[in-house]
What does this fold into?
Amino acid sequence: MNKGYLIAHVTVSDPDAYAEYARAAGEAMQAFNPKIVAWSGQYANLEGEAHERHVVFEFSSFDEARRFYESPAYQAARLLRAGAAHGTFVLVEGASL
It folds into this structure.
C-alpha cells in the first residue's frame, strides 16, 4: 500500500490565532502518528504563489491521510485557522516504485 502525504503551504496573518490552530492540529494528529517529512526551513519558491511555511506529513496510506483531514478533531482545529492564515493543503498518494 502506498503512503499518503498531506502537504501544506501556508502564510500566517494572525500568529496568536495560528498558534491555537497548531496546538489543536497537533493534538488531532496524535491518533494518526504521521511522520514529519519537511517542516518549514529553507525553501525556494520557483513558481506560483509564495507562502512562508511549508510542511509535509507522511501517513501510512492516502486513505489514512484523508481520515486524519476529515476527522472531527482536525476539522475543529481547522476552524481555528480560519482568519489566521491562508494557503494550500493537498493530499497526495505516494508512488509505488
Observations:
- The first strand starts at residue 4 and ends at 12.
- The radius of gyration is 13 Å.
- The CA atoms of residues 34 and 59 lie 5 Å apart.
